[in-house]
Amino acid sequence: MKIDSQFVHSAFSSIASRYVTANHILSLGADVLWRERAIKIISEWKPRNLLDIATGTGDLALAVKKALPEVAVQGTDFCRPMLDIAVKRGLTDVFEADAMHLPLPDACFDAATVAFGLRNMEDYEKALCEFRRILRPGGHLLVLDFSMPDGLIAKPYRLYLHHILPRIAGFLTGNSSAYDYLGESIEQFPRGDSFKRLLSRSGFSAPTALPLLCGIASIYTAQVP
Ligand SMILES: C[S@@+](CC[C@H](N)C(=O)[O-])C[C@H]1O[C@@H](n2cnc3c(N)ncnc32)[C@H](O)[C@@H]1O
Question: What total of structural domains would you count in the chain?
Answer without folding.
Answer: 1
